Amino acid sequence: MIYLDNSATTAFKPECVKNAVVSAIDNLSANAGRSGHRKSVCAAMLVYRTRKKLADFLKCDGDVAFTANCTEALNLALLGYLAPGSHVVTTVYEHNSVLRPLFESEKLGRISVSVARPNCDGIIDFEQIKPLLRSDTRLIAVNHVSNVTGAVADVHGIGKAVKNTNIRLLVDGAQSIGYLPVDMEKSNISFLAVAPHKGLHAVQGAGALCIAKGLKLRPIKFGGTGTQSLSVLQPEDAPECYESGTLPLPAIAAINRAVDYTEKHFEENGRIISELSEKLIGGLSNVKGVRLLSRINPSGIAALNVGALSSEAVCDCLDKDYGIAARGGLHCAPLVHKHLGTVLSGAVRLSIGCDNTEKEIDETIKAISEIAAAVD
User: Fold this and answer.
1) What is the dihedral sign for C-alpha 239, 166, 71, 55?
2) pTM for this prediction
3) C-alpha to C-alpha distances, 215 to 26, 129, 191, 221, 272, nearest whole angstrom
4) Contact (Cβ atoms closer than 8 angstroms) between residue 183 and residue 58
């Protein structure tokens, strides 16, 4: 199979990551920080080292909280930070893991939300955000890289523009971490949500929220933390206060080694994805009947439509007739499809990984050309 659904989860997992998972299962099947025996202490030390490694990688000077996934990380940032009466600016590119908690809170009368649209080049920058800011704006929530089109937001420019104000910046890094360099301190990012099983090539089962120094969130999950167990109230010490329940140690062990792998291969993998992205989008741009929704981008995302076919029909054909894995539909991002006019058709999303080859891209272009020709 030609796997081009890497934006959902990367197919390639380095040997060091797989070995870390097996080692954690074989040697550290203990509840980190919940007991005093050797295995539990070793597990807790692995969690600590992974927090520090991820913080150093992303230049986070505050806390790193482990979550079940990137969705939970985003929910923690939004529901844990926003006070009643807050105004939030977000964008049409956001995933439902941002939109749904925001609009649910607005429906309940707790907050108000404004939505920024991209400029003529498809980019979200501060000029698109600025007209929506109000005196009660407390947060800007921005998708660093669109999971539909691959458009890259100017998070650095947005962060710099609101520095020394009372507005915080939340960045959804699900499609950017591992593909683009991110420096929370330089870009004035207050909250950064991470999906390690994507660009970092870790495994499913854990996400992370990086929280800038001095910021405190209300927990959205309550239970055992291994600390202050006599109290029926949630402890206040971060980041453990955000992590009730048993931590997914094998997935955290995978993150630890995934960061090492990414740091070592960052430039090489970036070059591969960039070259293949250019080849794919360039080749598809010449296919009659194909509407491209993406420009060349560092995350290797190419979204498109083929004639009047639904995206699901195209992806079914790619899978059954050509052995190509792609994703159709609305990609849990409804507002960008309204913006693009693709609500009825959805979009075919091809997303490249560092293990894809030129031959696979050639075969994919040929397959889509044949599908488009059959429609014409």
Assistant:
1) negative
2) 0.97
3) 37, 23, 9, 18, 38
4) yes
- What is the per-residue pLDDT for 303? 98
**DSSP codes joined into one string, 119-131:** -TTS---HHHHGG
2-9+266-375: CATH architecture: Alpha-Beta Complex (3.90)
Place of tokens 């501060």: 126
Q: Do domains 2-9+266-375 and 15-261 have the same CATH topology?
A: no
Q: Look at residues 204, 216, 183 and name the one whose alpha carbon lies nearest to residue 65.
A: 216
Sheet holding 207-211, edge to edge: 63-67, 207-211, 191-194, 168-172, 137-143, 87-91, 112-116
- Rounded to whole angstroms, the Cα distance separating 149 from 95 reads 12
Count how many Cα atoms sit within 13 Å of the Cα of residue 350 in the half-sphere of its side chain. Answer: 31
Buried residues in 103-130 as b, exposed as e (16+ CB within 10 A): eebeeeeebebbbbebeeebebbbebbe
Distance CA 68, CA 49 (A): 18
Q: How many Å apart are CA 273 and CA 296, to the nearest integer?
A: 10
**Does the structure show a pLDDT above 80 at 88?**
yes
DSSP code of 83?
P
CATH architecture of 15-261: 3-Layer(aba) Sandwich (3.40)
Identity at 342, one-letter amino acid code: T
Q: Residue 30: pLDDT band by 50, 70, 90 thresholds?
A: confident
Write the DSSP symbol of residue 137. E
Half-sphere exposure of 79 (CA within 13 A, CB side): 19
Cα–Cα distance measured from residue 176 to residue 187, given in angstroms and rounded to the nearest whole number: 14
Exposure string (b/e) for 40-67, b if CB count within 10 Å is 16 or more? beebbebbeebbebbbebbbbebbbbbb
